[in-house]
Write a structure and sequence with these properties.
seven-stranded mixed sheet; about 450 residues; alpha/beta; Rossmann fold; binds zinc ion; Metallo-beta-lactamase, Chain A
Length: about 450
């Protein structure tokens, strides 16, 4: 089989791996590049592979950095099936139209304010492109085998989010496993990633390849922040991925409130997507570990905010409250309006609960930036910044290494992807020191023959 790294090589976003073998060409993941401008511009280049020559796309999970390029691929001529788990399909039905809507909005906003270099600014894709992509989705359950030409494909749970999977591809000679994003051994929402066996070639993520999550209890840290900020009359802003982290935080908040650990202040879930994602959770009880009581608690943990008008009204409130809104790395979405309104006041706090990729506002703020550019204007940010790593949906390097111990003997080839360069390199060293594996970090566009 021949593998080409078309994304998430030397960076976290844009996951895309072209695999050729058994007479077929398939793309594993079809993600959007996010963060640094230099990366985002890649979304606008001609597709790295002629979409008409692809037999299928296989998705590890629905997050946009793994699925968000699909509408563009379809717009450029892809017509084959997009294989994924039922959970991933249902979440993609929420995420892709929203992504298209954001692309449209960004283009329209740029035209109105005239801050784009392109006149008129065009969207990367439209809601119609997203619909066309969704029409190609086909589902496969965990452990079921699909055949694409001479390739056999099977998915196993990866514990990262609803429907997330490790993808195993075999031909008659060899096999390769793509981990996708790997969750934690003790996640509140999801069962641990299923151990892997008999792996000849491995493509493994390294988001937290150089970090350990704090051993302290994230729920105690969350309670601490809420008490402190509410105590001084402030607002807690939580930018969160609509799918996964939002549900987890709601459940934590519900439990903390029930236990009297946090004051009873209003909580707003200002994300139609996160609200819809909650529905998907309820429809897929086998794909998470929440009890019906947990689901109820989660549903009632916050007031739901759907319309833009209601969202704007929140910015006029003076009293302490907790606001959850997307996007998780503040690259767009309603959180930006809250950041504009509440960021300049030092009584407020910005609580970061997920990974912040290089070049995003989230990373800049995490690193202490005193102002950020929002919709073409600089906004001073004096709100306290707090990061709680323990709420992450990604395993840290020690957890990844522990999970990979079940792979015996060592894979012939190991490729470390989906990490910033320092994280990927640190993880390469951890694999050598802890497991005795030699791994490589592929460059963008690099080919590898796997046997
Ligand atoms: Zn993910």
């Amino acid at each position: 089989m021949r593998l080409t790294f078309l994304g998430a090589a030397g960076t976290v976003t844009g996951s895309k791996y072209l695999l050729e073998g058994g007479g077929s060409r398939i793309l594993i993941d079809c993600g959007l590049f996010q963060g640094l401008k230099e990366l985002r511009l890649r979304n606008w280049e001609a597709p790295p592979v002629d979409p008409r020559t692809l037999d299928a796309v296989v998705l590890t999970h629905a997050h946009l950095d793994h699925s968000g390029y699909l509408p563009r691929l379809v717009r450029e001529g892809f017509k084959g099936p997009v294989w994924c788990t039922p959970g991933t399909r249902d979440l993609a039905h929420i995420l892709l139209p929203d992504s298209a809507h954001l692309q449209d909005e960004d283009a329209r906003f740029a035209n109105k304010r005239g801050f784009s270099k392109h006149r008129p600014a065009l969207p990367l894709y439209t809601p119609a492109d997203a619909e066309a992509a969704l029409a190609l989705f086909q589902t496969v359950a965990y452990d079921e085998v699909i055949e694409i030409g001479g390739l056999r494909i099977r998915m196993t749970p990866s514990g990262h989010m609803l429907g997330s999977a490790c993808v195993r591809v075999e031909d008659e000679h060899t096999n390769i496993v793509f981990t996708g994003d790997v969750g934690r051994p003790d996640d509140l929402l999801f069962a641990p990633p299923r151990p892997l066996h008999d792996v000849r070639n491995l493509v493994v993520e390294s988001t937290y390849g150089d970090r350990r999550h704090s051993p302290s209890d994230p729920s105690a840290e969350l309670a601490d922040v809420v008490r402190r900020v509410v105590g001084r009359g402030g607002v807690v802003m939580i930018p969160a991925f609509a799918v996964g982290r939002s549900q987890q935080i709601l459940l934590q908040l519900a439990r903390l409130r029930a236990a009297g650990e946090i004051p009873d202040v209003p909580v707003f879930l200002n994300s139609p997507m996160a609200i819809d994602a909650m529905q998907v959770f309820l429809e897929h009880p086998a794909e998470h570990r929440l009890t019906p009581a947990d689901c109820e608690a989660m549903r009632h943990a916050a007031a739901w905010v759907r319309t833009p008008e209601e969202s704007k009204k929140l910015n006029l409130r003076q009293d302490p409250m907790i606001l959850l809104a997307g996007s998780g790395m503040m690259t767009g979405g309603r959180i930006l309006h809250h950041l504009k309104a509440f960021g300049p006041d030092p009584r407020n706090a910005l609580l970061l609960v997920g990974y912040q990729a290089a070049g995003t506002r989230g990373q800049a703020l995490d690193n202490g930036a005193e102002e950020v550019k929002i919709h073409g204007e600089y906004v001073p940010i004096r709100a306290e910044r707090v990061r709680i790593d323990g709420l992450s949906g990604h395993a840290d390097y020690a957890e990844l290494c522990q999970w990979l111990r079940s792979v015996e003997p060592a894979p012939r080839r190991v490729f470390v992807t989906h990490g910033d360069p320092a994280a990927s390199d640190a993880f390469r060293r951890h694999l050598r020191d802890r497991l005795g594996w030699e791994a490589t970090i592929p460059r963008h566009g690099e080919h590898a023959d796997v046997s």
